[in-house]
Amino acid sequence: MTPEQRYLFDVTGYLHIKSAVTGDALKTAQEAVDRYIHMPLDERPEGFTTRPRDLEPGKGGRYEHGFAFDRSLEAMTVHPAIWPLVKEFTFDMPRFVSGTLTLEQHNPDRQPMGTNPAGLHCAREGRHWLTRYEVKNSQIYCNDFVAFFYLTDVQPGDGGLIVIPGSHKSQFERPEDLLTPGPDGIDPEPDDVFTNITPKAGDFVVISELLTHGVLQWRPKDRDRRFLILRYRPQFEGRSGMPEPIFERLSPEVQELTKTASYGQIKDVVKQDVVQLSDCS
Ligand SMILES: O=C(O)CCC(=O)C(=O)O
Ligand SMILES: [Fe+2]
Question: pTM here?
Fold first, then answer.
């Protein structure tokens, strides 16, 4: 993690890492995602469930465990652009929690969301209120963070992720009516308090779960938004929830990364500065 990244993440609660994956690696990942999305239900390998459960191939929703569908996607969990952050934020004790593929399409039936028009949320609200963001020995510690890896471009005006920069350090409850609903009752009126992040295919966006964030509706009718949601926590908190059929597909390196371990134990994968996934297929 560079001093600039550390400074920016500390001040804002997120990092936008541009052009991390390019060329053939990006193309291979995009093609793998396309295969998963369009795979007929009865051909999906065991363990690849969706939300909603009966999601038709090609339709917008969550394609669970998308990261495990292909080695090119699995490689994103330890990609050199985020690996130093994953290590630093967990003080070298990371656990990879889950890697959902999300496909978002324009949805003309989307319902208004009331006083919280972009669905703002963060880990401080609800049962995860013990989530921590700390700095110790000039290192950032985060016990719940997410790396979004983008497979398609987001242009200004398209919609997508919004964040309230700096809110990961907030000491106060977010007022429920912070944003004013716009005329459609779905998106908020433009407001300087939030930033709409517009990643391009091949970019990572890393956020602390303490950062208040939400989503603007997806406006383009001819393009969709595809990204992996890669979640990490310290190895000594929580339990691995990776279903067996998914776990069995993974490389030994990522298998180890998904496991819980005691405080102070350093996983073999963490000893590597650059992780090459063994080809075990
Ligand atoms: O759609 C996005 O960009 C953000 C998704 C999100 O915040 C979530 O899944 O909790
Ligand atoms: Fe979220």
Answer: 0.97
Digit-coded pLDDT (tens) for 137-187: 999 999 999 999 999 999 999 999 999 999 999 999 999 899 999 998 899
Atom number of ligand 1 nearest to Cα 214: 7
In tens, the pLDDT along 29-53 reads 999 999 999 999 889 999 999 999 8
Chain centroid to Cα 60, Å, comes to 17
> Ligand 1: residues within 6 Å at CB?
160-161, 213, 215, 229
To test the ligand 1 pocket, which listed residue (213, 217, 225, 227) has its Cβ within 8 A of the most ligand atoms?
Answer: 213
Q: How many CB atoms are located within 10 Å of the residue 270 CB?
A: 21
Q: Which CATH class is domain 3-271?
A: mainly beta
Q: Give, using CA atoms, the residue closest to atom 2 of ligand 1.
A: 161
